[in-house]
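Sample pair:
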Amino acid sequence: MPRSVSLSFELLQTFVSLIRHEGDAAAVMRELELIQPTLSKRLKYLQHAGPLLDRPWLVREGKTWKLTAEGRKVWPAVEELVDRYRNLNTFVEEGGKPAGAAPVHFACGQAMAAGLVRHALRELRKKHPDARLRTSTLRGRARIEGVSNGSLDLAIVTHDEPSILEIARRPLHIEPLVTYRLALVCASGSKWESKLRSLPKAGAPPEAFCSFPLILPEPDAGIRKGLDEVLRSHGLLNKLDIALEIGGWATIMAYVRDGFGVGVVSEGALTEADGLTLRRLDPTAFPEIEAKLICRRASGSGEELDLTGRASDWCEELRRITMERGRRGR
């Protein structure tokens, strides 16, 4: 029977060494003490789709090896796995004290980091002063990929569940955290203020988007795609006057305050509404934004959460505090 191919530590080690040596295969052979046929055999599995990978991690350009798009997605998790293995070997072989629990890796958007997540982290610090945390504000897709590939423990995203599972390419644990409505916002005293105030108080209809120069999230943002879908269904998508397409609620509001147009933001990002005039969107036409907390499921366990890879107590406590904050609307 032919031997099945596995994603062995040797393959992962070779992958990490190659990228750290900027794609120089000769440097990898020297570091790992490999002969050319052995290195070529390993790289073959990482370069081509086949029995090991559906999507290659490496591509060769001339004499240099580079990461593919798929390789960039898995790189953080593979690098950390190889480093952890080396650290474990050093500890076992040389003795000594363990370096301590690895930090919990948590990612969210900028508005969440400034609001709900900030409060959750402060509460966790009070209960666990020694908790090691690494919090980042990655793009939504990168957060999902990070949880899926193991480089993140927890993340907050606003994608819908089918999109999360499509990006993750594996089942994840998904918990509704908090919901917000979207709003049209302009600077108070701007030439658009009276028109914005004249919109129905029950909510701005889709047609209102054609009345202003718009400052919108970037086209590839999950929230923007939802907006585009609604506007397309009403035949309005090609009638918009788009002034800016930029990332981050804080950035959108900064341009709104500078008078560049009328922005579309989440009401959850409006922690300081002084100097702004807003009208929430019609909830019958525009779905609410549902922020979700995501993490991995333990292998073969159904709904059991995979929070054991790092400081599991801190990770579970952070998840619990964040969920409680979400239910309280903070």
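The CA atoms of residues 12 and 328 lie 44 Å apart.
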